[in-house]
Each structure stands twice: as C-alpha cells, then as structure tokens.
Design a protein that fits this description.
α7 links the parallel β7 and β8. The protein has 14 helices and 14 strands. By secondary structure, the chain is α/β, with parallel strands linked by helices. α1 runs antiparallel to α11 and α12 runs parallel beside α14. Helices cover about 45% and strands about 15% of the residues. It folds into two domains: about 100 residues, Aspartate Aminotransferase, domain 1 (Alpha-Beta Complex); about 230 residues, Aspartate Aminotransferase, domain 2. A seven-stranded mixed beta sheet has the order 2-10-9-8-7-3-4, sandwiched between helices. It has a three-stranded antiparallel beta sheet with strand order 11-12-14.
Length: about 350
Amino acid sequence: MKPIVDLRSDVCSMPTVAMRQAMASADIGVDDYGEDESINRLERRFAEYLNKEAALFVHSGTMGNLIAVMTHLEPEEKALISKHFHIFDYEGDAMRRVARCKFEIVPDMTVKGLTRLHLDQCERLFHKRHTPKLMCLENPVCRLGGTLITLEHMAELKAAADAYRIPVHLDGARLFNAARALKLSCADLVSNVHTVMVDFVKAPAAPVGAMLAGPADFISRARRNRWMLGGHWKQGGVLAAACEVAMDTMIERVSEDHATARQLAEGLNAIDGLMVDLDQVMTNIVLLKVVAPDIDLEQLTRALERRGARIGRFKPDRRCRLVTHHGVDAPAVSRFVDWVAQAVVEQRA
C-alpha cells in the first residue's frame, strides 16, 4: 500500500488509540435528561479551561457557530463580519437560511500574517440606524492561510462593540493553533469575546465534536437551539470521552504542526514555478500558488495522487490550501515536497 500524505485538511487527522479505548469504556447515559456523565464532565472541564461560565457539546464546528448566531440574534438582525471569515464565507448560506441573520461586511487587512479589521469602519457601522447586533471574529483566519488576530486587536474590537452593547462571538475552530502561535493561553485569547466555538476534530484529532462556551444563561438558550437543529445527544458520551483524551494528549503537540507547515512552505517555495508567501504561514495552513503557466493543475494533482498524496482543489487563482496535522510528520512533508518537485519536472520534460 502506498504511503498516504493527506494535506487536504486537518479534519483528515485520525483519532488515536487512546481515544478509541476511551470511547469503548466511556461512562454514558441519556444526555437528553442530563445523565451522560462523560458529556457533563467535558462541558464543565472545558468551561473552566476557557474561564467561561458554561459550555455545550455539539456535533460540529458548523453547528456550534450556527447555534451561537441563532442564540445571539433574532431573525433579520445583522452580524458584523469580514468577508474572509468562515461564518460568512463558508457557513453564510446556513446562517441566512436557518438563523435568518443578515451580514454587515467590514473590510480587513493582513500584514505579515496578522489580520486586522478596520476599526474606524466598525465604529461607523455601529452608528448606523440598523446597527449590527453581533460581531463575529475568526482566529486564526482559515481563508487567509491561518493568519492571526492579536490579543491587543481583539481587545480593541471588543471595546468598540461594548460601547454599543454588542456581543462578540469567536469562531475558534483552530483556537489551539492560534493560542500556541500567539504564545497565549486559550483562556487569555478568548477573554475579549462573549462566546466562542472550538472544534475538536482538527488539531485535537477527535472523531466528532466541538464546544460552544460562554455565559451560563446564553448556554442554556443555546442548548434549546441545539435541540431545534436535531443536535441533542443520546449516549453521546462515547464521543465526549475521545474529546477529553484529546484535551489531555493533543493540545501541547500543536506546535509540531506549525513546524511541519513551515517546513512544507519553505520546501514548496523553493520549487521553480511555485510560490508560498512565507510571511503568511503562522499556524498549520499553507497557501500554495502555482505561478508558472506551463504547470497544468489537473496533471499535477493526478501525479501526486498516484504517488500517494492527497491535496485539496485548486481555486481559479491557482491557489491550493495545504494543512498539516498529527498524521503528517516531518518525513512525510519531505516526501511530499520531493513528489511535487518530481511532478513538475515530469510536466516540463
């Protein structure tokens, strides 16, 4: 069997043996009645971990964000957001159709891997007659290549929102990556937001699950919205047990994924005809651009698949996102870079 180097996403990370063992022996009950102790323990523990009052275990990050927006907003109310943030860019259709929210777009800028919203534009939009009722952030910013929003800028944004009593929700799907890259604790990083969603299927490598955390009254209302979406659990503790193992064993190793992403970026950038903006590589995401017009993207993808590599689709601008995780170590990155170089040479032969 050919070795597989799967760089499509960190959702391709596989649960560890310890997670599978925990799933088999989980202390479970009927969560509909609050009787699943594995879920209860995970929710209590995660709320304490982030220094929030309460937390809610949900099926996915997408569900967690949707529940958050449904809970913060009434139908037809607006959320202030960047067009690059996942809640708008990828989840926007569900937000409009299910949460029935509207969006107010604020411009952003990224310099050397740090992303900022235009604060003056945020304040101008807060002054409008139909002011947004929620600010949505994302950290790190997936679409921009895992770029970061600093703690200082998040504090500025929260202060602006607080002046108009507007809550701030953070899409923290890769919060562990952002915290490690910014050299902060996760609790410090979310200290300037009212609510946060954190995904457990990316760097933590759990098979299923995400957490929504915030004030206790908010989580109580969010729990009902989870039920409305069909997201209530039965014996969901078999999955919560895996997430708890992920908290214990997978968070500290996140920096390894950042190191392999840097190795990957530098290796690809050294290949003639390819380009990676190295200043943008802050976490575990690499945006590869094929700049040479003589390189056929479909041929390149097929050549890599034959060798045992999986990558995502190239966009019309000839960019492709590559993401490292615990299933892609340094030797795997070296193999992948060699395969890309070979595939490029073959096309030009």
